Amino acid sequence: MARRHVVAVDIGGTETKAALVAGTSEAVAAQKHARRATPAELEPLLAVIAELVDELRQASEHEIDAVGVVAPGIVDEANGVGVYTTNLPWSQFPFSTVLTERLGVPVAFGHDVRAAGLAECRMGAAKDLRNAVIMPIGTGIAGALLLDGKIFSGDGYAGEIGHVNVGHGVPCACGQIGCVETVASSAAIARRYTARTGTPVNGAAEVARRVSDGEQDAVAVWHEAVDALARGILVLATLLGPEAVVLGGGLALAGDLLVVPLRERLDGLIAFQRRPELRLAALGDEAGFLGAALLAIDMLEAS
Mind listing the pLDDT tens digit for each residue in 143-170? Predict the structure, then answer.
């Protein structure tokens, strides 16, 4: 199996991360990293991607075979199109075509969460599973659906578990009400704690520390988040029957502070459904660009 050298780019809501990655379709490893703030407009974003690729290309001892780019929102992987996103500046944009022309190498474009899920399935916490959901919890919440050993995309629309209505009544930026991620994402936890107390915090990690200290307001916000997550996972268990749910993203760094109450709440909700094992992701915040690299290598192997 050929060893490939690719640049992987993970477009985030606030930061775009990139890495020089080498490996095969079974396993890859990052060799060098670079990052930039994510611009609020499309053309500057394309320029930032080109800068990151050029920087890492120049740092490589090998020719770059391809580039893999992943992004949030609704993504049509088959056609390399960013269909829709609530927080970033594009709609129906042909990323693969435009970036291939600009960068001069083949570009695979995919969904950030499905790419992270692909990485966890091939070389991480879901490697031994055939049916699972890999669910990073960060600025938003989505799930990569591993069904019968394959990542299922639903033409780009599958896995939006963050936008399941779990009944809390809070409006979401997507236009719906009651979405899981409006109370359970890392961003929502920090935002809701600040709204409740008037005290700004530096992200959900700080709220987690206050939960550990027994602060009542922090505990209340945390329990609301855990309840929403458990109800979202119950929907997944009811519809898909996964063997496990792999929790990733920034919130998963809380470890047992998240998993123990989530397991208890899920146990209280489960009736007839298969009870999914709760696992913590193995690849951390590298999962997105490792998955982007695997998408690029898969594209090369298929051509």
Answer: 999 999 999 999 888 999 999 999 999 9
What pTM was computed for the model?
A: 0.91
Distance CA 138, CA 212 (A): 20
Give the alpha-carbon dihedral of 46, 52, 54, 56, to 10 degrees. Answer: -150
Quote the distance between the C-alpha of residue 27 and its chain's center: 19
Quick count: other Cβ atoms within 10 Å of Cβ 37?
11
**CA-CA distance, 63 to 149, in Å (whole number)?**
32
Are 68 and 295 contacting, i.e. CB atoms less than 8 angstroms apart?
yes
DSSP states along 198-240: S---SSHHHHHHHHHTT-HHHHHHHHHHHHHHHHHHHHHHHHH
DSSP assigned state of 121: H
Q: Tokens for 55?
A: 């920087």
Cβ–Cβ under 8 Å, residues 203 and 210: no
CA distance linking residue 24 with residue 29, whole number of Å: 9
Place of tokens 């919890």: 137
Bridge partner list, 21:
6, 30
Bridging pattern class, strands 15-23 and 244-248: unpaired
Rounded CA separation 12/23 (Å): 24
3: three-class secondary structure by DSSP: coil
Return the number of other C-beta atoms located less than 10 Å from residue 62's C-beta: 13
Nearest to 25 by CA among 48, 51, 2: 2
C-alpha–C-alpha distance, residues 60 and 66, integer Å = 13
CA atoms of 192 and 185, how far apart (whole Å): 10
- pLDDT tens-place string over residues 227-257: 999 999 999 999 999 999 999 988 898 999 9
- CB within 8 Å of 125: residues ≥ 6 apart: 134, 246, 279, 280, 281, 282, 283
